[in-house]
Every structure is written in C-alpha cells, then in structure tokens.
Specification:
Strand content: under 5%
Order of helices and strands: HHHHHHH
Distance between the termini: 54 Å
C-alpha cells in the first residue's frame, strides 16, 4: 500500500498487467500450447531414435523403469504427438469430441511423468528438463480449460452463424 501511495501510476500499470494475465489464462487460445506439445513430442522421439542408448543415462533412470528401451518411449511420443495433431487439425465433428478429453489426460500424464521423472532422477536437476515441464504446464492449461460445448474448429464458445465458417 505504501508503494501505491508513492507511485500510483506504477500500481495502476501492475494491476492492469495482472488483469491481462488472468484474462489470458482464462480466455486465451490454448492451441499454441498444444502445437508446442506436438513439436516437442516429435523432437523427443527423434532424439530417442538417435543411435545410442538414452535410457542408460542417469537422467532417464525413472523413465527406464517404466519402459526400458528408447524405441518404446519414441513410439509413445510419436503416437501421442500424432493423436494431438489429428485432434488439433482433423477432428472437427461432434463424434470425435468424446475422445478429446481422454487425449488431453494422456498428454498431461505423459508430459508430467517425463518432466518430473527426469527432474528428480539426479541432483542437481538437469536444466534442460525445464522446457519439458513448461510443456507439461501447457498441456495442463489446455486440459483445465477444456470445454466440450465450444467449437473445436474456430475455438469460439458459440459459432454466431450456427455452422462454423472454418469447417472443412
């Protein structure tokens, strides 16, 4: 309160920033977070398919306890990334919406497990895993914001004309 008395313009700017940030969190488009998850899944798969044994490294110890080979993990990343890509660009009918939430749960589970398993496998935690945790937060944001009553094509709550103008 003392700061607001001495610098009212700074306080007003900070309040406006917080309002905009909350608005972005509640009403922002989550498709970029899904796209980042897709690209990261393909990058992980590519790195896991690189010659050599990734799961033998101490950073991936907990992941190796769940699935022991790089190829199994790469397959999981490719499958989840491909399903997310399909959901993002091709699943536009009401028939596929029931699978939407299940896919979000799978993506959240995968990214959360991978990020935390690698972060807590060695001390100090590997700094390179911070981006994986950001992807996990993005998938959680996408899942928490999920609403089956909005248009999956244009991401509007209600299409004004009844039919989405972006439908294929």
């Amino acid at each position: 309160m003392k700061l607001c008395a001495t610098a009212p313009k700074l306080c007003a700017l900070a309040r406006q920033f917080v309002r905009e940030l909350v608005g972005l969190w509640r009403y922002g488009d989550t498709r970029p977070a899904t796209l980042a998850s897709i690209l990261s899944a393909y990058a992980w798969a590519g790195c896991l398919l690189w010659p050599g044994e990734t799961m033998d490294r101490p950073t991936y110890h907990h992941m190796a306890e769940v699935m022991d080979t790089d190829e199994k993990w790469a397959a999981l990343f490719i499958i989840v990334g491909s399903l997310q890509l399909w959901r993002l660009y091709a699943a536009t009918s009401r028939r596929f919406i029931r699978y939407d939430y299940a896919l979000k749960i799978i993506a959240c589970s995968m990214w959360t497990f991978v990020g935390l398993a690698c972060m807590f496998s060695i001390y100090p935690p590997p700094a390179a895993m911070s981006d994986t945790l950001v992807i996990a937060v993005g998938t959680w944001w996408d899942m928490v914001r999920y609403d089956s009553h909005h248009c999956r094509i244009c991401d509007e709550t209600v299409c004004e004309k009844g039919d989405c103008p972006y439908a294929r």
